[in-house]
Amino acid sequence: MRKRTAKVPPDASPLHHALTRIGDKWSLLLIAALLDGPQRFGDLLDAAPGIAPNILTQRLRHLEREALVVARPYSERPPRFSYELTASGQELAGALRLLSDWGARQGDAQAPRHTDCGTPLQVRWWCPACEQPVDDPDAEDVHVV
């Protein structure tokens, strides 16, 4: 069983639980970098410009405790590790895409585009049981926990 680093009230929202497990902006940037595959410490420093080495170490340890990242040794002397996402960490890819899309619409950044035609991509809610898109997630027939 996973050891949690912070206590979350039992009646907390799902978003509260998610944010407690993930942490801060550095964690999101690290998870995004690790979506491309295993990375070494120096690679992660490059992927998150402005992060201090001690903060990178803290964030990686937090993500390991939350079972989102696993460290695999590649050198014994000195001890060095390669970091990769667990299956649970990989599940954050969709959420990061949504945040990136939202962030692109807030500033001058480019939203993700379709490779074939160049059209900006849109995200839609989808019910896998009914196999139908849900156009208005705020509608009365949609339950958000």
> What's the number of structural domains?
1
Individual helix count: 6
CATH fold node name: Arc Repressor Mutant, subunit A
Give the terminus-to-terminus CA distance: 24 Å
Helix content: 25-40%
Proportion of β residues? 5-15%
Average of per-residue pLDDT values: 83
CATH architecture: Orthogonal Bundle
What report would you give on this structure?
By secondary structure, the protein is α+β, with helices and mostly antiparallel strands. Helix content is 39%, strand content 14%. The protein contains 6 helices and 5 strands, in the order H-H-E-H-H-E-E-H-H-E-E. It has a 3-stranded antiparallel beta sheet. Strands 4-5 form a two-stranded antiparallel sheet. The protein is globular and about 55 Å long. The model has no long low-confidence stretch (mean pLDDT 83).
Topology summary:
Elements: H1 14-22, H2 25-34, E1 39-40, H3 41-47, H4 53-65, E2 69-75, E3 80-85, H5 87-90, H6 93-106, E4 125-127, E5 132-134
Antiparallel strand pairs: 1-3, 2-3, 4-5
Please describe the structure with a list of short key phrases separated by commas or semicolons.
alpha+beta, three-stranded antiparallel sheet, 145 residues, Arc Repressor Mutant, subunit A, two-stranded antiparallel sheet
Question: Summed up, what is this model?
Answer:
The protein has 6 helices and 5 strands, in the order ααβααββααββ. It has 145 residues and is of the alpha+beta class.
